Amino acid sequence: xxxxxxxxxxxxxxxxxxxxxxxxxxxxxxxxxxxxxxxxxxxxxxxxxxxxxxxxxxxxxxxxxxxxxxxxxxxxxxxxxxxxxxxxxxxxxxxxxxxxxxxxxxxxxxxxxxxxxxxxxxxxxxxxxxxxxxxxxxxxxxxxxxxxxxxxxxxxxxxxxxxxxxxxxxxxxxxxxxxxxxxxxxxxxxxxxxxxxxxxxxxxxxxxxxxxxxxxxxxxxxxxxxxxxxxxxxxxxxxxxxxxxxxxxxxxxxxxxxxxxxxxxxxxxxxxxxxxxxxxxxxxxxxxxxxxxxxxxxxxxxxxxxxxxxxxxxxxxxxxxxxxxxxxxxxxxxxxxxxxxxxxxxxxxxxxxxxxxxxxxxxxxxxxxxxxxxxxxxxxxxxxxxxxxxxxxxxxxxxxxxxxxxxxxxxxxxxxxxxxxxxxxxxxxxxxxxxxxxxxxxxxxxxxxxxxxxxxxxxxxxxxxxxxxxx
Length: 471
Description:
alpha+beta, 11 helices
């Protein structure tokens, strides 16, 4: 309860000076005391006959006693100042309360906006509701497509979301139909309540509404008789408004994921159908291949080798080409091919072949560490490396060390014709990008160099000989 203390008020220098001025100007003799007759200002004099109370909010804070009834003026002034002080305190308390409400709702809104799943929403709702209200259980009841209620509750101890079926009856059913929040401090005295748990004594329930449509309710139950207040109901209703939006967004998200999954499945099925009728539907098949390729390249990393995939390589090469056109810098490309990989696969089988591809890819990735350099799986047993701002001599050094690094893995290769271990052949091409040239020509040059490396006996590298202007 907010109170005004007369003793503290009289200690204020301005008020004390004002009282002194009154005494001197009006030639008054008086003193001020508290209800226990302790003198708070002036000097006690039992001969003073005039006595006026200082009253604030129907409570006597003290008395002004003096020689003549002129001291009533002093008393009226003190009454006014004391009441103004009370109003200031009430305003400050009300402002603080409003700020706390706004902060509370803002905090919840911020937390709910980051939730992607319904379980995350239930976790936050349960936690924040327990801060706001005394509760034994917090449950969310949502209408399903069949018009029945799905009841959800979250256990912080078990970190588990529990689901059960509910009935559109009792207090929650009433709130669902009326769209208005309800406080039932004693369920045994409310004829609308249908017992589902004999331990429940008090209930506060609010609708979950989005754009004037009620999608469910939030019910807070307690095993003791609790006197929930209208202020608590007001905050709880504001909380449910935030929760309703978050819950509906999570439902939309779930539907979108389901739709996306179904769409992906349909695309796969359609792709299989079009592959079977390739001869008859050649034109349609070209469009399908583009769509299939686009779906396969949605991820930027090759699942098997854990290096960038071909789509990312293409995009990044185009990006670096444009950047180096402006900066007039060198770009080098190294095309790598595992020697006699088909023979390796046939002899050691596909599982070992997959492991070999992964080890080689990680070797390349660990060796090429600059942030602007990229290692990607080019296709099958081929890999490609982009070296930005690297000239021909720098690229040759890298290629030479890569050959040594792969062979030093000492992966046995019984059928290799150039080494007892897995090795690589590399083709190197370097140019200064121009707006007239194209990245595709650089790839062609690297591919020709790779072919030359294979002709030289493999487990080596070759550098493309060309005039950069032709690019």
